[in-house]
Amino acid sequence: MKKFFKVLYQSKKTHLSAGRSKARLGEIKTAHGVIKTPAFVPVGTKGTIKSLTPSFLKEIKTQVAFVNTYHLVTHPGVEIIKKAGGINKYSGLNIPLMSDSGGFQVFSLARKNKGSRLVFSSISPPSQRLQKQALSLSQEENVLFEKQPALVKISDDGVKFRSTFDGSIIEFTPEKSMEYQRKIGADINMAFDECIPYGVNYQYAKEATERTHRWLKRCIKEIQNSKIKSQNDKSKFKILKIKNNQFLYGIIQGGVFEDLRKKSAEFVVSQPTDGVAIGGVSVGESKKEMRDQVRWVSPYLPEDKPVHLLGVGQIDDILDLVGYGIDTFDCVEPTRLARMGTIIKLKVKSEKLKVEGEKVDILKGVYRADLSPVNEDCSCFVCQNFSKSYLHHLFKTKELLAYTLATYHNLWVMEKLFEEIREMIGKDLI
Ligand SMILES: [Zn+2]
Description:
Radius of gyration: 22 Å
Bound molecules: zinc ion
Oligomer: single chain
Distance between the termini: 31 Å
């Protein structure tokens, strides 16, 4: 295996306020292909980018996608995925994949339960609507979720809950999360962390951040132990080569508190992981607070490891965040908007160093008879072949193709945006 991450070019731009730009061009090498960074990572929660076949992703030139461990553990279960040869083979996606730790979902679930007060005493519980959003449950799952509180036990060790699918008990601890992710087999794995909800006090954020640090050490240890075990198995069965193509990212937490964020960045960057992610952002805070949390840790980010920002990818934020040193972004927005009939239009103003995303609601009555292309400035398959009227008609009549066409276009736009960003870095514009 060649080097996992390589910086190809470091921007020479200097910002008056923030000093030297940390924007860079890089390459992440995985067993399923190379990711040119900065890159956008669309979310394929259950092992599919909703409504797109893998061949569409090839056309769009999607470089990498994100899958959610919690969802795959509850269905179809990691043993089936492992038996199939890993999520890439199982899903036919055949591109580099990242998986999360499951922490975000299981802790949202845990907070719903009153028993969680034992551990999360200082939390002001978020509204049920916010919790549901955080869990991204389907309509059907929501019904089950409300009927039977799924949580069984929460401790400093992790969370135990009952599956909404078959009632079986599922446990998430740092070790379990690593084991699940190993079996799922995505190229890049996230350490088990506690995503700190917005609005908690300093003491809570401090304890949760320290817990996340202890868990990172346990994740690293679990991986080391599993390697020793596989080496022993190797000598036992005389297997020639151990396959170790999975890479671990540690996650920086700290909430909205500057000193906690900085301490967390220092700790996580000092650990022997392959990459670093910033978590607990975009959880209900303002845009300014979200950017601050990334800006604070920017000076601490590693030069020789890739940096991922979890759950952020709104077009108007990305340029600044790339300047703070972020290499990859996962975000549900472009695909979620597409399913609601919202088409993203990109306006790149390189000379002003600005990228704007305009959102067009194709369901508006004005598009019913509009035979112009979905987006005049776009060269994607959808915009070359279909009119606004046709897409409007598909959405209005709830035809399945509507979701495919809108998702195709929105992800194409995100790829174009990142191509543009990589060019801008090459010219020292970011
Ligand atoms: Zn298009």
